[in-house]
Amino acid sequence: MEDKGKSIVLSNLNAMIGGDGPNSYAQNSVFQRGIIESAKVIINEEITMKLDIQKLSSAISDTFRIADLGCSCGPNTILAIQYITEAIESKFQSHGLTSPEFQVFFNDQVGNDFNSLFASLPVDRKYYAAGVPGSFHGRLFPKASLHFVYSSSALHWLSKVPAWNKGRIHYTGAPKEVFEAYSDQFAKQVNSFLNARVQELVPGGLIAFVLPSVPDVSSHPEAIGSDFEILGSCLVDMAKMGMVSEAKVDAFNIPFYSTCPKELRRIIEGNGCFSIERMEILNNLERRIVVRDPRQRMLFMRATVEMLIEKHFGTEIIDQLFEMYSKKLSESSLFLNPENYQQSLALFVLLKNKIQ
What we know:
single chain, 356 residues, alpha/beta, seven-stranded mixed β-sheet, two-stranded antiparallel ribbon, 12 helices, 18% strand
């Protein structure tokens, strides 16, 4: 019988595969890069309209401090910071002001491959860089020390998941109480994230983040997760072949949660520390991120979840698991009919610190 009060805490397990090898996140994060590129225009617009230079001037001094939370180890964070710093420079120049110096903090879990990240930083970058390891669900920076916080494809990863979900590894298609366990944990983590950031941001400071989303629904959404259903079916097959235990499969859940705009708005408004300046589905996302080759999709999934699977099941099954996944994916309606994947959305959110 499943113990529905039990959960698994995931400490430092959500780091992506480091380095620049064929299975690395750096080589297999086109999906996340597409999200960053899709958000570029909105980030420019919002910095132009919402970054209050006059209000921030007393807090800026000569240094403008930016943090990318959940930066990972590939080139995507470098691209995002380039977009952000260019937009801020343009804002200062449009007011006839000299651009400040930039200090950029790259944050992720302590297991993140910071060495690869810093080795790939542009030599001609216009900012001073520093790494800040640790969970962004708690404090990372001194009080009122940041002016702009950014996060992309990170807030949807959970630090705790239910340790029961028979025959599945995700809430998609699972009983309602499994989804509710995910949803409750997501709400707790967003609140923790906001409570930490409100102390670290100067008054009027901004947070911009993008995360996977589903359309607004009234109950138990199932629009996201087909990839995880396929991966879960591979693990179930391995259990039937005796390669892993059925109990281990039942106790394993991918800590990935896709919120909807209505749910996220309710959480942020309930927190009360930030005003919602913009919340918008990225409309130009599909043409940038649909990965139509099944092997590329497999490598994307592997770069994202291999460390989680390896920690729970060991290294022996990894290669065969993802070969099985690639084969099943190529035969599935998800791949044969790419329009089935169009419900995979990304939600852009801009918040302003309203605590004085």
